[in-house]
Amino acid sequence: MKLFLTECRRLLHSAVYWLTLLCLVFFLASQGVLPDDKTIEEPQPGAEQSVLVPSNDPALIMPEAVSALYEGFVSNNFSTYPHGLIKHVKLTAAKQGQLAQLLAQLTGLSAEELLAAANAEGGQSGAFAVGGDDLQLNPDGSVTITGGAASAAAPDGPGSAGVPLRAGLAWEEFTGLMEQADRLLGGGSDWAVDGLSGYGRVPATYDALLEEYQASLAHDRYTGAHARLFCDYAVCMLSLLPAFTAAAFFWQDRRRIAPVLYTRRVSGAALICARFLALVALQFLPVLLLGGWLTVHYAAVYGAAAISWTAFFTTSVFWLLPTLLLVTALSLLVTVATGTPAAVALQALWWFSELMGGTGGLSDGSTYGSLLAPRHNSLGQYLVFQQQLPRLAGGRLLAAVLAVLLTAAAVAVFERKRKGGFSWHGRFASAARS
Are residues 89 and 28 in the same domain? Predict the structure, then answer.
């Protein structure tokens, strides 16, 4: 306990610790969750028209997705999110030709006709003969096909007026062609299979909204929903910032007290575990304090008897603590092994690839099982959350187990260095001998 308190005092004197804490608070405040700027209210009849939900109906999804792809093809301008960040894509002539071939299979038009329409884009307005029908290029770059045959081929679904859909196009063939289009655009587009649910959205029914509200009220008691959204944003920072704190902590040792650390007056297990627990405790304490403040805030909003007073604490322990344990343990191991801030670069790469590279979410649950940063970016969607809870729990348990294993590995590496048997470019052998 004495060693743990000593490490805590040292950490409290670290400027990096306070800087990362400020970054966490600033990020949460900037995202509108300190406190949340939205409240949970009972749905009213008529309001459901403003809430759109995935229809999962191929008859609605296919024409709207094809129409959107065709508009991008005509203007040769696509917005994709290959790593969670927007990227504007402009295809080369060769790739434009490949996309025309895919659109030909989707629409039943020829690739030559589609390319002619794309080449005519540029502020011109006029009619083009397309299979006996009129293809009208609008001033905004969109295209409308008129005529009896085209009108008959185009479904009456949302967004279907812009381009026809090939008669008899099966869902399996459609998704395969869309997957090819997504790869042609570099990935991360709305035409990837897991992004197609964004098309063909329909207004939610009042009964569905009421069922969602009643389930959330019975189990969440308001603060449960707010706690999930709080953790959704907090995990974005807790999956990265602890690497800076841990690396800076050990970097101080290398510059100031490395010879003392590598003596045998304190066991390696005691020192590494004390430091690990100090890093975790002092970085998790602010999260609990913020949770307590938000609990009091929502008690004033909804009423003290209506809320769950433990939701922020239990959700934070379940959701955020495993991530903090894992990031701290990994950073501790890499820093002990290398004696450099390499842990920061390694963690930044993992953070970017897993957090920013994820394209799933509420529709398919692909981020709930994440080891690093499970997401549920919604104040509602309680029923979806319940369905994905096993995946979330499995990922959280695995993260905690890995954290224990990584900490044990850090102890082993530290002890090996004390004996002078582990050297990273000869750096630690001299420390052990001193």
Answer: no
